[in-house]
Amino acid sequence: MSNHSFLPTSLNLKWFYGLGLAFILLSLAGLLYFEFEVGMVFPIVLAIVLVAILRSDILILVISFLVPLSISIKDIGEGTGFGMNFPSEPITFVLMVGSWIKFFIDGQIDRRILKHPLTKGILFYLGWILFTAIFSTRFEVSIKFFINKLWIITVFYFLAAQLFSKTINIKRFLWCYMVPMIGIVVYTIINHSQFNFLQKDAYWVSKPFYIDHGVYAASMAFFVPVLIGFLAYSGTFRFSNFMRFVIGLFLVILIMGVVFSFTRATWVSLVAAAVFFVALLLKMKLRNIIIIGAFSAFIYLNYKEQISMVLRDNKQDSANDFGGHVKSIYNVSTDDSNLERINRWHAALRMWKEKPILGWGPGVYKFEYAPYQVSFEKTKISTNFGIGGNSHSEYVGPLCETGFIGLGSFLLVIILFTSTGMRFIYHTKNKEHKIIATCLLLGLTTYFVHGFLNNYSDSDKVGVMIWGFMAGLVALELQEKKSEEGLES
Question: Quick one: 338 exposed, middle or buried, by C-beta within 10 A (0-12, 13-18, 19+)?
């Protein structure tokens, strides 16, 4: 894009005055014919649409700031089962609608983004979700699931990728989410300290901003590599001494938040990201990493019984002391949290075997999995209503809900993102771009690993970073390609 305003070239004063008149008329209608609270919703929505058309760049950053601060509202309309994170999700939806209006007005979009391999992978992923939604066992659930995916990806991948054509906007996006999140981490730590940092209280002390300690911890993990990168290479970013102090303070607060979240999946994901960073330093190729992973899986399958015997000998449950809590990560004998995950995974696999190609429908798992549990796998926390999470996996869940092609489409997106990131990091001569790309790649890697044990991508608290980090990486690569083409011409 040539400017930050995203102002359509054909949007003239007629549009501006027309929308302004509509705003006034809707305001009057709201006052005269509806209750004040209901009536004023119409002009507010129109105002957001107007901003979405004229300055979608600002609105993307505003939403990024609001997402950590948004509060979950459940069962809107009594009995509908409809909920949202307010105010971030309604504004994101309106921005999506505004962006479509803008596209129909002038038809402008950066076609280089559409031609990127990662974009094609994402479009296939979205298309398969829509296709399987049509054949879903619960059509209305699956369509809502698709719309939720669509608005997050439209705004934080397609629109954001255009905004990120200037590197400064990638940094602004990161800070817009980080600053309010750090405030919430401080709030959570203070709240938790009143209960002596007991592990059982970690599950709720981040409310009302993060209703689940797993979402809270996963969100923090994205930014640990970012802050480490900013601090380690502060000279490259030309940060002042005061800014270095702020970044260091934020990093300490974030690490404290991760530790006291008692979320073992996040601890594991950060270790995995550190190992991946070593692989990047060694300039390992993606195919070699995949071969190592496949070899590890082969070893596990061949020695599964011996490994299972070792795991069953571990009786350490979730604990308040960190040593015990770390040890409980691989306790599949008595730890209810671990056993419940296995119970839900097995239920999902049984469901997949019944509908291997199209699955049961996007978002349907929690409504259908109860009959597929078996009594000897149930735990004290088992339920028939999907309470306490969904399938607890970003990989098993899509397999069950959208079939093996659906899982394949998600894995394809991960592979395309990772290969794009590694290729860019290994070849770019721009040091600032290299650091930012590494931070984005490692930050999202924490969630790809976390996704083996939990699934939070449907929440905008996490979805904003998943698709925003991908958009940032694509934008960096396209920036450099454009510069190279300019030099050649």
Answer: buried
Alpha helices of 355-395 — where are they, by DSSP H?
365-368
Q: What is the 3-state secondary structure (H, E, C) of 272-329?
A: HHHHHHHHHHCCCCHHHHHHHHHHHHHHHHHCHHHHHHHHHHCCCCCCCCHHHHHHHH
Cα 13 from Cα 381, distance rounded (Å): 60
For the four alpha carbons of 75, 77, 78 and 79, in that order, the dihedral sign comes to negative
SS3 for 181? helix
Q: What is the mean pLDDT of each run of 10 residues along the chain (489 residues)?
A: 43 55 62 53 67 81 94 64 78 85 74 95 98 96 94 95 95 97 97 93 93 93 97 94 96 96 92 96 91 79 60 52 52 68 93 96 93 87 72 94 97 97 96 97 97 91 96 96 66
Q: Give the dihedral sign, CA 47/89/225/167.
A: negative
Contact 154, 99 (CB under 8 A): yes
Which residues pair with residue 82 across a beta bridge?
76
* Alpha-carbon distances, residue 81 vs 75, 78, 144, 370 (angstroms): 5, 7, 11, 19
Total number of residues shown for the chain: 489
d(CA 346, CA 344): 5
Nearest of 21, 9, 14, 111 to residue 54 by alpha carbon? 9
3-state class (DSSP) for residue 379? coil
